[in-house]
Amino acid sequence: MAAISRQRITGFSNPTVKFLRSLRDKKHRRRERRFLAEGLRLLTDARESGILPEMLVMAEGRDPHSLTDALENAVAGAGGTIIETPPDILAKITGKANPQAIAGVFAELDTPLSTLDRTAAPIWLVAQALRDPGNLGTMLRTGDAVGAGGLILIDDCADPFSVEAVRASMGAVFTQRIAQARWEEFLPWLRAGDGQLVAASLRDAVPYRGAPYSRPCFILVGNESRGLPEEYEAACDLRVTMPMRGRADSLNAAVAGAVLAYEVLAAFD
Amino acid sequence: MAAISRQRITGFSNPTVKFLRSLRDKKHRRRERRFLAEGLRLLTDARESGILPEMLVMAEGRDPHSLTDALENAVAGAGGTIIETPPDILAKITGKANPQAIAGVFAELDTPLSTLDRTAAPIWLVAQALRDPGNLGTMLRTGDAVGAGGLILIDDCADPFSVEAVRASMGAVFTQRIAQARWEEFLPWLRAGDGQLVAASLRDAVPYRGAPYSRPCFILVGNESRGLPEEYEAACDLRVTMPMRGRADSLNAAVAGAVLAYEVLAAFD
């Protein structure tokens, strides 16, 4: 099968190009259960986290790089497909005028909630109906930084495997566990074991600084415009407030999650 | 002049429509020194902060709202221009398929560094070469929340008056002072008065938690991919590190600024 595993593609209408382009679209990503990640740094982060793309797409005439060689060898060794294509076709695939010289197709990395080991980390981030893929990616990145176990997506969130989310995660999409669940599944799962559910809230809340956090701590962040539904807040073990000294009554969702996560991290140290 | 101050525009090729559309482009914004903000909430935030648009653009057939009436009256009372236009023309102006029913043109709100009163607030945010307008808007929003005085933009930053930055600021573009300067101007200005310059850094740094912050504290955040130039870090009074427990060695720029700003706020309380 070596003949299939290495291809050169020169035509825009090639079916593989169409397949790759379709991965920019959520509907197609869902159906294929595959996503696209771009750039040598991101793909190297993936490799160093033990995750290889099924397909590696490289621009012809790219600058040589030892990390590119390492990727190519690893993908070939694992039986993956390697594609070389002119830069303008790669630009069409990634939808960027100045694309990175390398991209990879990965199998989606969802973990079923039922198989998540909550004892593996002291902190978990939970996003409820977050609509901005950049916010999801930023939460993954923050999760990596605070040593969180992963990000649990509740209700209808943006796609964590979209190009923007993957890019904003700076590689954390490959290191953080990602689970997706409805609230009606999440809450019973949480209550079946240890776990403190904490939300930033204005209702019946204590100051976030020095609040009685306990492990494993699940930090719940709500939708960008509506915040958390009242019943979700009511189900939390701890509601905390952050100072708001200005006109606004809330922070950006990813920022609120990060300020809270760093506070919890400090409390656990 | 009442005849000029109220117009109905029905044609896409109307010069006012062209002017309004051009404000989505940085070059034109700079030349006109005007920017566009969309949405009743944002425009109401502006009004409540004492800032009115020079021109108010409203979609015909919009739902009536007392806040819209209040805006209209205020703009008319101040001698501004009020424009009514079909929703599809407003969509073309804002570049969104589902535009808000109202938008306003504001004079840019830069404050010259030389007129900034540093004693007016205990915290100031400083962004160096930040390229993402969403990050700038998020920093403005965080600044509002921590009671900062404003955001100082050093070197070539994204435009704080772009539609994305204004939107992400959630109104803070109207409450935070915004100054733009080269590093070569900023540092002498800073050193001519009180002010501690603090950066998140890996070099010669102390833990960010419990570091000796002092007022007014200027929190410096560097470019998204390159971070701060070494000489800028060296010029800081205090370099602090945040825990990085994962693979990554940095946080999103707006997140790093926010975690640090909340720590400084707690230290000053």
UniProtKB/TrEMBL annotation, chains A, B:
It holds the Pfam family SpoU_methylase. It comes from the Bacteria. GO terms for biological process: methylation; RNA processing. GO terms for molecular function: RNA binding; RNA methyltransferase activity. CDD domains: SpoU-like_rRNA-MTase. One of its GO terms (cellular component) is cytoplasm. PANTHER family: RRNA METHYLTRANSFERASE 3, RRNA METHYLTRANSFERASE 3, MITOCHONDRIAL. Belongs to the class IV-like SAM-binding methyltransferase superfamily. RNA methyltransferase TrmH family. This is RNA methyltransferase. It comes from Pelagerythrobacter aerophilus.
